[in-house]
Design goal:
six-stranded parallel beta sheet; about 15% strand; binds fructose -6-phosphate; alpha/beta; Rossmann fold; three-stranded antiparallel beta sheet
Length: about 240
């Protein structure tokens, strides 16, 4: 797309089409959602479609990719707060259908929490469409370099570059949590469809590695090459290094 505005509107349109199709079939649409700067315009468009074009989220179930750890849900930087602010507070989704990894779980119970998160995804029938951004490290979710294709939902240590990129949100890198809970690469690869969004020249190099590089743990996003249905949605700047 020539710009991220057009790209975001097109991506939101695909999500809306899925939600409407599932509603016609009389079953829920299960969405995997991302946070960060990339999908904000897309969420704004989903809110508009709800408010102006009658798009209902009553039959939508969501699972977010990740959350910082530890993180209180009402914290300025929490992904719970982010999702409320950009999407959930403005649509008719049922609160019980929203799932976001819990940054308040005691450390010795995180493994059990993660196991249960995976179970909830399975019980919901699996993810129909997973929305992704990409980090400069090549992470999807918070699967930093070193994350294998079979990795599952777990507690991870954030990469230095990721913490640098988050520094402004936390008023300094020293305040950025060192860990996060994230769906695994294996969890993400089980989604029926995947839509990865990236904007701007800062993402051009990692987009090239993801699309054209060899599959490797060093760039976990390369594992998307294994998946049968991935749409990579880019603006011109993010696509600039593709051959
Ligand atoms: C967020 C997430 C991350 C971001 C990535 C890009 O839930 O899982 O992988 O998608 O860090 O972040 P932005 O969009 O801020 O460039």
């Amino acid at each position: 797309y020539s710009d991220s505005e057009q790209a975001s509107i097109a991506a939101a349109g695909e999500i809306a089409a899925l939600i409407r199709q599932r509603a016609r079939e009389g079953r829920p649409a299960v969405l995997g959602l991302a946070t960060g700067s990339t999908p904000t315009r897309l969420y704004e468009e989903l809110v508009r479609l709800h408010q102006e074009e009658g798009l209902s989220f009553q039959n939508v179930v969501t699972f977010n990719l990740d959350e910082y750890f530890p993180m209180a849900p009402d914290s300025l930087q929490s992904y719970v707060r982010f999702m409320r602010e950009y999407l959930f507070d403005h649509i008719d989704i049922r609160p019980e259908n929203v799932h976001i990894p819990d940054g308040t779980v005691p450390a010795d119970q995180v493994a059990e929490f993660c196991r249960r998160y995976e179970e909830q995804i399975r019980e919901a029938g699996g993810i129909d469409l997973q929305l992704l951004g990409i980090g400069r490290t090549g992470h999807i979710g918070f699967n930093e370099p070193g994350s294998g294709a079979a990795s599952r939902t777990r507690l991870i240590t954030l990469d230095h570059i990721t913490r640098t990129d988050a520094a402004s949100d936390f008023y300094g890198e020293e305040n950025v949590p060192r860990r996060a809970i994230t769906m695994g690469v294996g969890t993400i690869l089980e989604a029926r469809r995947i839509m990865l969004l990236a904007w701007g020249e800062g993402k051009a190099a990692v987009v090239k590695r993801m699309v054209e590089g060899d599959m490797t743990d060093s760039v976990p996003a390369t594992y998307l090459q294994k998946h049968a249905s991935v749409h990579v949605i880019l603006d011109e700047a993010a696509a600039a290094e593709l051959t």
